[in-house]
């Protein structure tokens, strides 16, 4: 990731370059308000659905495999996919490199593509709407979902935060227990839950002071 950022200093407005492989001839390029993925220009404001997921499979120290992707559906109907992956046997292979490349793409996408889609959700919520993100209903007061097939409703004042762990987006109560279950990252816009919930939790805390 740091190497990518250092390598883009000569192109005006370019903030990051994400390769799928060594010497990638068509890397994803990120700017302040847009990205170029697979040769197509994507305005962050035009992102409607985003899916990001990385999967690791290991068999002791003999074999390891990694696959990761970022999939987009734009408001104009276009669909784009950035994907990387590789394997290693007895420590030899592209497994670690491909995993690092995906980590760089994931980090930049969270700060640009996901941030923009989350901000669109937040604008709706601030205007009084209840939005549904990957099966979780969210309004200005809190979130609602299911735990063990039971419906629960949790105000933001009782939420400590939201993160991504082991392929799931998890929201936690202030007592560190899971609030509304784990949401699979593969679900449409599931990764948007993190910035949306974190922003509304921070606003709720500020209101209590």
Give structural notes.
The strands form four sheets. This protein has a four-stranded antiparallel beta sheet. A four-stranded antiparallel beta sheet has the order 5-6-7-8, covered by helices on one side. Mean pLDDT is 89; it is low at 1-9. The radius of gyration is 19 Å and the shape is globular. It starts with a helix and ends with a helix. The protein folds into two domains: 2-124, PH-domain like (Roll); 130-208, Roll (PH-domain like). It has 209 residues and is α+β, with helices and mostly antiparallel strands. It contains three helices and 15 strands. Helix content is 26%, strand content 44%. Helix 2 crosses helix 3.
Instruction: List low-pLDDT spans.
Output: 1-9
CATH class category name of the largest domain: Mainly Beta
Order of helices and strands: HEEEEEEEEHEEEEEEEH
With strands numbered from the N-terminus, the spatial order across the biggest sheet is 1-2-3-4
Sketch the major β-sheet: 4 strands, antiparallel
Mean pLDDT: 89
Percent of residues in beta strands?
35-45%
Helix/strand/pairing category: alpha+beta
Query: Structurally, how many domains make up the residues?
Result: 2
How many helices in DSSP terms?
A: 3
β-strand number: 15
Radius of gyration: 19 Å
